[in-house]
C-alpha cells in the first residue's frame, strides 16, 4: 500500500518498486522499523572512476551505512559509513571503504543537526581519492593505483539500527553518482542542485524498498552549510 500526499510519500510494504523525481524530497530512516533502499543504477557499463555526492543530516547516536555499492565480482566494492558518535564507535566521523582499503575522515566542528553535503571521487588509474565537505575540497590523498574496474549492479542506501528512541532519524537526499571524477566547480553546482548523475540520477530515481520507507521534506535547516 502507498499513501501519497503533497508532503509525504509512505511506502509501507517491503519490495515496493518505484521511479520518482525526488527533487526537494529526502528518504527518512527512523531508528525503529526503517529498512534500506535499493537503487538501480542508470547504466551497467564498466568504468574506472566515479564521483558520489549526497546530502545528509541525523540525530541518531550510532553509526549508519549511508551508501554501499555491489558489483559483479565484489559484494563490498565501495561503502560509506557515517558515525554519529565517533568517540564511542569508530574514532572517525566518516569511514570510506573501497575493496580492502579503509579511509577515515573527521568533520570540523561537527554538528549532527546540520545538513552535510558529502562528495567522494576516485580514479583507479591514478589512485587518487578526493573528498569534498559542503562544497569545499577537504582532503585529497593517493590511495592505491590499479584497483579493479567495476560495473555497478546494486546500490543500497540508509540502513539504521533498531533502538528505543523512535524519534531518532537520519535523512539522505540528493544522491547522485557519475562515472567520472567531477571538477570542483561541478561540486559547487551539485550544492545548488544544478547537476545530476549519469549512474544515479536523483531526479529520476529507480528504487526498491526493503522495509518501511518514508519520503518527506527535510526536517533539517536548509541554511546550515558552514560547519
UniProtKB/TrEMBL annotation:
Looking up SMART domains in the UniProt record yields:
PTX
Principal localization?
A: secreted
**What are the required cofactors?**
Ca(2+)
Which Gene Ontology cellular-component terms appear in the entry?
extracellular region
Q: Pentraxin (PTX) domain spans which residues?
A: 23-221
Tell me where in or outside the cell this protein is found. Answer: Secreted
Name the domain of life.
Eukaryota
Q: What Gene Ontology terms describe what this protein does at the molecular function level?
A: metal ion binding
What are the alphabetically sorted keywords of the record? Calcium, Disulfide bond, Metal-binding, Secreted, Signal
Of which family is this protein a member?
Belongs to the pentraxin family.
| PANTHER family to which the protein is assigned, alphabetical | C-REACTIVE PROTEIN (PTHR45869:SF7), C-REACTIVE PROTEIN-RELATED (PTHR45869)
Name recorded for this polypeptide? Pentraxin (PTX) domain-containing protein
Q: Which organism is it from?
A: Aquarana catesbeiana
Q: What is the lineage of its organism?
A: Eukaryota, Metazoa, Chordata, Craniata, Vertebrata
